[in-house]
């Protein structure tokens, strides 16, 4: 990798000479503007609006346009004379936990390498100190004519520098949240948790830019004079208006994409219509049906002709006949119980009356003996 900046890390009184290299690269495909009639390149030329003629790059400088439209010329010498302590120094100002850095501030990423053999020892010292403390270093440095905020951290055995946006460059998320109150049910949260668990983790190294690959195939086919590859058919899953149904469908799709069977609890099925002739519960989807079928009680005024139509049918006890027999047995048992209670009451009453008569006779006998 080619270094884009040479300087030093200022770590208290310790100075670490380093080189700065880009840690990322852009793989997007760029296009040229062409003339549709003959395919010629379209180029932009720089003209001076006062002289109306093309000017070379050596004749172009910087200028600041004021509010009234006037332009203030600024030269490179003017900028070089400004007091910029971080022009060639990455100045560490603090060490903080990594969660103190808002990901919204993250910008470009760079690698830092030790510049020379004497820099190896202090470079390794700062790296190990960051690794053992679990913190990151907040620093300031200057790059491409402006001072920037930065974060230093360890990546394997290398120091990495992330350029950060200044806090005043982050916009506040005003009026971004839903304007209406939304209530989330526990069942919906449970399904969302299930969906997240089903999707699980992913190896980031396996992800790739599918759009860029499709563009490369298109360019290769056109360069060879072939037909472009056919477009994949869009997934027409239908419009889902119910959030619960959408979550359940997402869980099933995620499990199927990972080669697993969908969970029955997350399935949404239409139960088959019950047949009127069946009287016993039917198992549907692994669960017993709890609904009961109402039956018409048999009529007592059955004709003699209907009763004698079939002995086999009469001998087989049906659910209705069993119900009727049970009801009749209960009534007879109730009558017997009532009869027993009545006779018991009568016996008790007779005994009480006899006792009263005996008690009435005893005083009379006593009077006779006295006389």
Index terms:
single chain; 371 residues; alpha+beta; seven-stranded mixed barrel; two-stranded antiparallel sheet; extended; disordered C terminus
Describe this protein's structure.
The chain is built from eight helices and eleven strands. It is α+β, with helices and mostly antiparallel strands. A seven-stranded mixed β-barrel has the order 1-2-6-9-8-7-5. Strands 3-4 form a two-stranded antiparallel sheet. Strands 10-11 form a two-stranded antiparallel sheet. A hairpin with a 2-residue loop joins strand 8 and strand 9 (about 160-165). Helix 3 packs parallel to helix 5.
Summarize the structure.
The protein is of the alpha+beta class and 371 residues long. Helices cover 33% and strands 20% of the residues.
Query: Could you spell the SSE succession in H and E letters?
Result: EEEEHEEHEEEHHHEEHHH
Evaluate the radius of gyration.
47 Å
- C-alpha end-to-end distance: 147 Å
Please outline the major beta sheet.
7 strands, mixed, barrel
Give the strand order of the largest sheet, numbering strands 1, 2, ... along the chain.
1-2-6-9-8-7-5
Number of helices: 8
Task: Set down the secondary structure blueprint.
Blueprint: E1 3-11, E2 14-22, E3 62-65, E4 71-74, H1 76-80, E5 89-97, E6 106-114, H2 120-133, E7 135-143, E8 146-155, E9 158-164, H3 186-199, H4 210-223, H5 243-257, E10 283-284, E11 287-288, H6 304-307, H7 311-315, H8 319-370
Parallel strand pairs: 1-5
Antiparallel strand pairs: 1-2, 2-6, 3-4, 5-7, 6-9, 7-8, 8-9, 10-11
Helix pairs in contact: 3-5
């Amino acid at each position: 990798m080619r270094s884009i900046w040479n300087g030093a890390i200022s770590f208290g009184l310790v100075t670490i000479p380093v080189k700065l290299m880009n840690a990322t690269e852009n793989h997007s495909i760029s296009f040229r503007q062409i003339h549709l009639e003959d395919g010629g390149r379209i180029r932009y030329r720089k003209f001076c609006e006062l002289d109306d003629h093309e000017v070379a790059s050596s004749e172009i400088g910087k200028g600041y346009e004021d509010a009234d439209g006037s332009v203030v010329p600024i030269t490179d010498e003017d900028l070089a004379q400004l007091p910029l302590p971080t022009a060639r120094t990455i100045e560490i100002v603090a060490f903080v936990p990594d969660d103190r850095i808002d990901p919204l501030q993250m910008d470009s990423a760079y690698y830092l390498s030790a510049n020379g053999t004497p820099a190896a020892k202090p470079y390794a010292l700062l790296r190990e100190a960051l690794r053992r403390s679990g913190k990151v270093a907040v620093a300031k440095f200057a790059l491409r004519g402006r001072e920037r905020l930065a974060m230093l951290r360890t990546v394997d055995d290398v120091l990495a520098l992330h350029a950060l946006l200044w806090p005043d460059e982050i916009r506040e998320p005003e009026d971004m949240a839903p304007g209406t109150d939304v209530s989330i049910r526990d069942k919906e949260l449970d399904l969302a948790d299930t969906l997240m668990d089903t999707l699980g983790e992913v190896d980031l190294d396996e992800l790739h830019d599918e759009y860029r690959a499709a563009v490369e195939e298109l360019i290769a086919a056109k360069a060879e004079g072939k037909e472009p590859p056919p477009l994949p058919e869009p997934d027409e899953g239908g419009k889902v208006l119910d959030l619960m149904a959408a979550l359940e469908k997402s869980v099933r799709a995620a499990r199927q994409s990972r080669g697993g069977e969908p969970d029955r609890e997350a399935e949404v099925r239409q139960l088959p219509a019950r047949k009127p002739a069946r009287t016993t519960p039917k198992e549907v989807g692994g669960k017993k049906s709890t609904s009961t079928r109402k039956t018409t009680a048999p009529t007592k005024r059955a004709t003699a002709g209907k009763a004698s139509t079939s002995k086999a049918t009469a001998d087989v006890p049906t659910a209705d006949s069993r119900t009727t027999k049970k009801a009749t047995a209960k009534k007879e048992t109730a009558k017997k119980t009532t009869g027993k209670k009545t006779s018991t009451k009568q016996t008790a009453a007779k005994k009480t009356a006899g006792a009263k008569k005996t008690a009435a006779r005893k005083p009379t006998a006593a009077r006779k003996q006295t006389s």
